[in-house]
Amino acid sequence: FFGFSIKNALNFAMFPKTSYITIKTKNLKKIIKITTSLVSASSKTHRGIILLLKDVTDLQKLQTQANRNDRLSQIGQITTSIAHEIKNPLSSIRGFASLLYNDLENSKPLQDLVTYILDATKALERVTNNVLAYTREVVLDIESIDASSMIKDIVKSIEIDESFSENVKINLSLANSSYFIPADKDLLKSAILNLIINAYQAMDDRGYLSISIIKNISSISINISDTGEGIEKKDLDNIFTPFFTTKQRGNGLGLPQAHKIISAHSGILEVRSILNKGTTFTITLPNVRK
Questions:
Q1: Which tens digit of pLDDT belongs to each residue from 65-116?
Q2: Quick check: is 239 in a domain?
């Protein structure tokens, strides 16, 4: 249970001074740090052993979050530089292609070929603009908003969208009370919408989308769950990395942008997933902004 033999520790002083174990229950996973020391009767004999157990689950989460933020910051600096380097020659290509298109007005087949160049440069410009938008610092316009009311508005706008499948059922668990938090309403709305769209796309137009709010002592948790295909374990650490995507269509910036907005609100965005059963994203936001 402790990751080493108590008998060997007492008889031969063979034990790690610090070790970690993971305790799993049905709904929770706890990481426990074990610090070990011996109680000695003499230089050669040991009277007992002291085990200090400490729950470091939250500390590990914060460390993972900090490491992810550092990695995203480094990626952001690199991609900004690349995007700027691409944008200038891209503008020249599009400009000269436009001139060529006009010069070929009497040659429709050749003009059609130039159209492919123009369409490709426009697509690349969209990508570079998205990259530059992602790497900009998030500036918040903080106000007191009702998270419950905001989610209801988002769901209402989704349900009236003709492209939203009737075979996807939305379950809301928001209670009747209000959940006021300090936040930038437009940015937070954008982040939650990104997560909902991601959940919808994971279900292939059929399944259940569940959204709930849990009120904690000093924060609220917004859970967005789907009954889609789930995310493989090897991909879970990368889903908030810019340009990483497992979808055939998409630029891989939706989840990273959501993560960036939540972090700017001093919040945490976590994900749990089981293959072929579904995924849950949990947004935790403070009740008071420090």
A1: 666 666 666 666 676 677 777 777 888 888 888 898 888 888 888 888 888 8
A2: yes
- Asked whether residue 181 falls in the same domain as residue 278, the answer is yes
Do 154 and 130 sit in the same domain of this protein?
Answer: no
Q: Left, alpha or beta for 278 (phi > 0: left; psi -120 to 50: alpha)? A: left
Tracing tokens 């989308």 back to the chain, one arrives at 209
Calpha distance 162→206 (Å, rounded): 15
Spatial distance between the Cα atoms of 21 and 27, rounded to a whole number of angstroms: 17
Q: Which residues contact 165 (CB under 8 A, 6 or more apart)?
A: 205, 206
Half-sphere exposure in the Cβ direction for 37 (13 Å, CA)? 5
**19 vs 184: CA distance, rounded Å:** 42
Q: Do 126 and 261 share a domain, yes or no?
A: no
Instruction: Over range 109-124, report the average pLDDT.
Output: 86
Residues 191 and 153 placed together within one structural domain of the fold: yes
For residue 276, the 8-state DSSP code is T
Confirm whether 60 is domain-assigned: no
Separation CA 146–CA 67 (nearest Å)? 31
Give which of 204, 212, 202, 198 is closest to 170, Cα–Cα.
212
Which of 183, 155, 196 lies closest to 261 in space, CA to CA?
183
Total domains in the chain come to 3
Find out whether 270 and 237 touch, Cβ atoms under 8 Å. Answer: no
Name which of 287, 282, 285 is nearest 267 in CA terms: 285
Residue 146 near residue 179 (C-beta atoms within 8 A): yes
User: Are both 163 and 254 inside the same structural domain?
Assistant: yes
What is the predicted pLDDT for the residue at 220?
92
Residue range of the domain that includes 99: 78-135
Radius of gyration of the chain (CA): 26
